[in-house]
C-alpha cells in the first residue's frame, strides 16, 4: 500500500516540490464514537472488504497527549502566529489504524487558563502520558503543570519531548504522517475543523500547531504494527517524572 503514496507524489510534482498542499484531504479517514453495551467505541465510517465497519473499544486503546504552548496575550509568552495546541491520539493494538481523539488549538489570556484546559482534557480521555514541547517558554508552562497537579491532587503523567536541534525537524515530523495518511490509516472526526484546516493548508497555512503535534504523536507513539512498541522505552522517563513522595 505504501506504493500508493509514492506514486501519487511522483505524479504530482507541484505537491512534491512544496508549491501546493503536501497533503491530499481525501486521504483522511473518519470515525465516530458510539456507545455499545455501556462502552464507548470508535467506529470507522469506511467499510471493510466484507461490508462491515471496524470498531475499537476506547477503553482498550493506549492514548497519549501532546502539548504545544504558544499563544498567550502576555507578549513574553507568545510565539508569533502561534496558538496553544492539545492533541490526544492512540493506536489500537494489532492494527495499523491510528486515531485522533481530541484536537484543540487557541489562545488564552494567561497560562493558568491553558492549564485548566489540559486537566479537563485529561479527565475526559485519561491518556497514559502527556508530552510537552520543550522549546522557548514551554519550560515555564511545564513547571506550572507539575505544580498544578500537586495542588489539585491529580495524577497527570507528563514529561518533556526531546530537545531537537536538527534543521526542519518539525516539518520532517509532519511530513512523516503523509505515508500513513495516504494509505488510509489516520482517522479523525469531521468536527475537528482546526486540524483539518491545518492539514489542508500545509505547508502554506499560517499555523501548523496541531499537525506538528500529530507529527510528534506519530514519531513517538504510533507504529506500523503495534502501538505498544514504544511504551517500554517510555517507562523509565515516565517513572522519573512521577514524585516518589506524592505520586503525582
From TrEMBL:
Q: What is this protein's record name?
A: Terminase large subunit gp17-like C-terminal domain-containing protein
Record organism: marine sediment metagenome
Amino acid at each position: 500500500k505504501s506504493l500508493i503514496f509514492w506514486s501519487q507524489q511522483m505524479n504530482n510534482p507541484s505537491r512534491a516540490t512544496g508549491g501546493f498542499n503536501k497533503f491530499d484531504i481525501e486521504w483522511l479517514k473518519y470515525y465516530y464514537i458510539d456507545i455499545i453495551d455501556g462502552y464507548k467505541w470508535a467506529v470507522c465510517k469506511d467499510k471493510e472488504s466484507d461490508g462491515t465497519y471496524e470498531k475499537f473499544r476506547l477503553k482498550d486503546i493506549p492514548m497519549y497527549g501532546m502539548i504545544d504552548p504558544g499563544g498567550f496575550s502576555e507578549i513574553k509568552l507568545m510565539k508569533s502566529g502561534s496558538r496553544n495546541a492539545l492533541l490526544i491520539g492512540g493506536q489500537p493494538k494489532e492494527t495499523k489504524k491510528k486515531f485522533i481523539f481530541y484536537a484543540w488549538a487557541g489562545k488564552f489570556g494567561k497560562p493558568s487558563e491553558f492549564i485548566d484546559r489540559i486537566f479537563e482534557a485529561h479527565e475526559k480521555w485519561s491518556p497514559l502520558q502527556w508530552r510537552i514541547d520543550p522549546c522557548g517558554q514551554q519550560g515555564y508552562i511545564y513547571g506550572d503543570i507539575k505544580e498544578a497537579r500537586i495542588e489539585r491532587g491529580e495524577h497527570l503523567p507528563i514529561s518533556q519531548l526531546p530537545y531537537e536541534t536538527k534543521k526542519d525537524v518539525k516539518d520532517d515530523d509532519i511530513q512523516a504522517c503523509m505515508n500513513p495518511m495516504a494509505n488510509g490509516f489516520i482517522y479523525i472526526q469531521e468536527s475537528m475543523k482546526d486540524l483539518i484546516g491545518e492539514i489542508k493548508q500545509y505547508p502554506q497555512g499560517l499555523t501548523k500547531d496541531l499537525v506538528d503535534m500529530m507529527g510528534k504523536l506519530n514519531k513517538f507513539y504510533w507504529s506500523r504494527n503495534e502501538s505498544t512498541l514504544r511504551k517500554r522505552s517510555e517507562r523509565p522517563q515516565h517513572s522519573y517524572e512521577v514524585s516518589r513522595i506524592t505520586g503525582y
